[in-house]
Amino acid sequence: MTTHVPAAETAPETGSRKEPSYLDVTKGFWSWAGTLDHKRIGLMYLIGVTAAFLCGGILALLIRLHLWTPTGAIFESNAVYNQVFTLHGVFMVFIFIIPAIPASIANFVLPLMLGAPDVALPRLNLASFYLWLTGTIMAIYSIMSGAVDTGWTFYTPYSLQTQQAVVSMGLAIFTLGFSSIFTGLNFIVTIHKMRARGQTWFKLPLFCWAIYATSVLQVLATPVLGITVLLLAFEHLYHIGIFDPAHGGDPVLFQHFFWFYSHPAVYIMILPAMGVISEVVTVHSRKPLFGYKLLAFSSISIAVISFLVWGHHMFTSGESEFVMLAFSFLTMLVAIPTAIKEFSWVATIWGGSVALTAPMLYAIAFLIIFAIGGLTGVFLGTLSVDIHLHDTYFVVAHFHAVMMGSTALAFFAGVHHWWPKMFGRMYNETLAKISAVLILVGFNVTFLPQFAMGSQGMPRRYATYIPEWQIYHQWSTVGAVILGIGFALMLGYLIHSLFAGRKAAANEWGGVTLDWESPTPPNLYNFDDEPVVTGELYDYGQGAKH
Amino acid sequence: MAHGTDTSHGHGDTVVDHSHHAHVCSFQAFFGIYVVLLFLTFVTVAIAEPVSGLHLGSASMLVAMAVAAVKASLVMTVFMHLRWDTAMNNLAFLGSLIFLSLLFLFTLADHSTRQVADPIGGTPVDVKRFGEN
Amino acid sequence: MGHSTIVTPTPQGGFQTHTVAHHFKTAEQEFQSAKLAFWLFLATEVMLFGGLFAAYIYFHDVYPETFQKGGALLDWKLGALNTGLLLTSSWTMAMGVRASQLSQRKPLVWWLVLTVICAAGFMVVKYIEYSTKYHHGIFAFTGLFSPDDHYAPDLMGLAYPQLYFNLYFTMTGIHGLHVLIGMIAIAWLIWRGAQGRFHSGWYTPVELVGLYWHVVDLIWIFLFPLLYLVP
Question: Which one of B88, B99, B122 has the shortest CB-CB distance to A307?
Fold first, then answer.
C-alpha cells in the first residue's frame, strides 16, 4: 500500500516534486536494513560490492608488488602467496563481479526501465542481499580460520588434502550462489510480469535483454555449482569418494561439474556489462542502437552457447580427445554473437553526436579492452594453441581483459551513467575523465606484458620466476600502481560528490528510456504517474540535445 | 468483507479484482492418473532383473528410465497442471531438462570416448577391491 | 502511482480476505508472478539433483558390477512401498490444491493431513532402511565403512563398494531433507487453511507447495529404479 504523503508537507528544496525521493522518504538504520525498495537494496549492494572490489584490489596490488623481484618481495613463504591469490580470486569472482552489475546497478535500474514500482518479489530481493552478506561473512571467516590456497577453482584432489577451511569456503560459495539464483529468478519474473503498458519485448531497452540472458544463466547454472561445492564439503569431511581418486572417484568429473557452472559464470559477468555498454553508447552518441534485434538475440545466443563450451577449460586435464575437439569447435561459436555486439556498438558511435563524457570514456575503454580480451579468447579456444598457453600468464591476461578490463569498467561506466539518477548529485567530470584515462592506460601497462611473458611460458600462480622475465613483471607492477591510483581517485570524487557535488539535472544525459522519466532521484515507488510506452525505443529525434 | 466495493479511509478505494481464473481438474481425472502411476510402478518392479530375473541386458536401464519418464510426465502434465499452464511456465521447467541433458551429454561423452586413445579409459589403474589389502 | 487497495473476491463462510501487494496492478499479475518465480525455483531444484544423477550414471558406467551388487543389497520392497507412499501423497496434494481452488475449507485440511501422513510414513520407512544398513556396518561415508558378515560376502572383490553406498546416502539424504522441508510447509498450510486463509480468490501458497511436493515425488520416481533396481 502506498504511503501517500501530501506534497506540500514534505516537498524537498527543488519544490517541483510531487513526492519525496526514495532517499528522503524514511530515515534511520532500519529504514535501510529492512527495506523492500529495490533502489535501496541496489545501493546496499553497490556499497558491498565496491568494498569487496577494494579488498580484492588491495590483494592484487600486493601480488603485483611481491612479483617485483624474481624471488618475491613481500610474502615470507610461497604458501602465503598461494593464499593471497586465492583470496583475490574468490573475492573478485564470487563476491564482486557476479553480483556487481545485476545486483547493484540492475536492481536499481531494471524496474525503472520497465516503468514498474518495484521488482516482482521485493522480499526475495532483500533475502538475496542478506544471503550475499552471510556468504561474504562466511568467506571472511574461512580466511580467518586458515586461508584456502587452492585457487578459486578448488580442483580435487589437492583441495581435499589442503586445509579444512575449504569446507567453510565451499559453504560460503553455496550461500553466495543462492543469493545469485534469487536475484536472477527475480529479474526474469520482473521482466515478464512488470513491464509498462505498451512495452512489448522489442521495446525493451537492451540492458533488460542482457539482464534477462544473465538471469537465465544464474538460474540454470548456479545450482550445479551448489551441489558441486556441497559434495566437495562432504568429500572433505567424510571422504565420500566421488571426486577423490584414492576412493575410486574422478577428479575430472569435479572439473566437469565446476566448469558447467563456471563457464556460464563468465557470461554472468560479461552479459550485464554488455547491457550497460549498449545503454551508455546510445545515450552519449545520441543515436539509436545499430542492430537492436541482433544485439538482443546475440545476448540470448551467448547465454545458450555458454552451456556448450565448458570443456575448453580442461584441455590439459585428461578429458577425451573427442570431446576436446567438440569443445574447441563450439568455443569458436561464441565469437560470432560477441563480434556482432562489438561491431554494433562501434556502428552506433559512428556518425553519432558523441559526447565524451565520463561514462562514455569508460565505455570506449571497454570497447578497446574487450576487443583484446575477446580475440585472445579465440587463441585460447584453439585446442593446439591452448596446450601451449594453458595455465600461463597469457590466460591470466586474457581473463583479466574480460573480467576486469571489460566487466569492471562497464560496471564503472554504469555507476557514472546512473550516478545522477541514484543520488541526484553530479561528480567532478574532469577528475572522472582523468581517472578513466588512467585506468585505460594502467590496464594495458599491467596486462600487455603479461600476454608477452605468458606466450613465452611464464606459468600462473607462481610466487617466483626466472630473472629473464623481471622487466615484464616490473612493467606489470607499474601498471597495477597506475590502476590503483585511477581507482583511488574515482572513489575520492564519487564520495566527495555525495556531499558537495552539484545538483544533477532531472535528465542529466538526455536519455530517452523510462529510467530517465522518473523524478531524480526517483520516488519511493519510482514514478509520479504510471508510465505508458507509446513511441519508438531510443528515439532521439525531436528535442534531443545535440 | 464480502463482494463489492467499499471505501476505506483516506484517499484509497478498495477494489475487488475478479481477474483470476484457474483450471480445476475433476476428481476422476486425478484418481485415474493416480491409479495409472501405481500400475506403472508395478511394471517397473515387475520387469526389473533383481525381482523377475528377466534379462534385458543393457536395455533394462533404458526401459526402467522410459517408464519413469512416462510417470514423471503424467505427474507434470496433470498433477502439476502444466497441461493447462502458460507456455512460459512450461518452458521454465522443461528448459531446465534441456540444459541438464547437456551436462549429461558432454560428461558421458567424455567418459565413453576416453578409451579411444587412452587404454586406461578413466578407470583407476590400481583399483582397490573390497576385502583386499 | 495508484493508491487504491486491491483485494481478491472472498467467498462466504469465514474466509479471510487477501489484499494484493502494492506493486501489482491485478491479482492475476501477482498470482502469475509468484507462479513463474516458483517454476524457476523448481528448475534450480532439477539442476541441483541433476548433478547428483549425472554423478550416479557416470560411476554406474565406471563400476557396473559394484553398482549392480550394491543395489541388490537394498530392499526393493521397502523402496516400492515408499514409491507408493509418495505417489499417494502426490495425489492427495493435488486433491488439496483442488479443494483450495473450490474454497472447500475442511476437505483442504483433510487432504493435506493425508499428505503429511504419507510423507511421515515415507520418512519412517527411510529410517528403517538407514538404521538396518547402519547396524550392519554400512555407514554413510567412507571412513567408517565396515560391513559385517551379513553384507561382506556379497561385497567381496567389488571395486569401491562404498562409492555406491555413499551416492545412495547422499542422493536419498538430500531428497529426504526435501521431504522434511515439504512436511513443514504442508503443516503450515494446514494451520493457515483451517483459519480460512485459502480460497478460490487466493490459494497461491497451496499451489506453490503443491508444485514443490510433486517435484519431490518426480525425483523419487527416478531415484527408485536407479538405486533399488539397478540392472
Answer: B99
Is the CB of A188 less than 8 angstroms away from the CB of C40?
yes
pLDDT of B3 higher than 60: no
C-alpha distance across the termini of chain C, in Å: 63
- Are the C-beta atoms of A484 and A57 separated by less than 8 Å? yes
Give, in order, the Cα–Cα distances in Å from C87 to each of A75, A294, C83, C129, C214. Answer: 60, 47, 6, 19, 9
Chains that touch A (3 or more CB pairs under 8 A): B, C
Q: What is the three-class DSSP state of A523? A: strand
Measured CA to CA, the distance from residue A196 to residue B1 in angstroms comes to 31
pLDDT of residue A9: 38
Q: Which three cell numbers stand for residue A339?
A: 563480434
Q: In which band, very low, low, confident or very high, does the pLDDT at B119 lie, cut at 50, 70 and 90?
A: low
B88 chain-C contacts, CB cut-off 8 A = 36
Mean pLDDT of all residues in A156-179: 87
- What residue ranges in A410-461 does DSSP mark as E strands? 425-426
Chain C hits for B122, Cβ within 8 Å: 62
If DSSP codes are grouped into helix, strand and coil, which group holds residue A428? Answer: coil
Supply the DSSP string of A31-70, one letter for each residue: HHHT---HHHHHHHHHHHHHHHHHHHHHHHHHHHHHTTST
CB contact under 8 A, A319 and B110: yes
Number of CB atoms found within 10 A of residue A337's CB: 20
User: The C-alpha cell of B45 is what?
Assistant: 518392479
Which member of C33, C45, C166 has the closest CB to residue A193? C33
Contact A527 C1 (CB under 8 A): yes
Reply yes or no on whether the pLDDT at A7 is more than 70: no
User: DSSP alpha helices (H): ranges in chain C?
Assistant: 27-62, 64-72, 76-101, 105-135, 152-155, 161-194, 204-228
pLDDT, average across residues A402-409? 95
- Report the pLDDT averaged over residues C81-91: 97
Select the residue of C40, C57, C214 nearest B75 (Cβ to Cβ): C214
Mean pLDDT for chain A overall: 91
* Measured distance CA(A503)–CA(A519) in Å, rounded: 13
CA separation for the pair A397, A409 (Å, rounded): 15
Contact C141 A234 (CB under 8 A): yes
Q: Which of A10-14, A477-481, C92-96 has the lowest mean pLDDT?
A: A10-14
Would you state the pLDDT for residue A1? 33
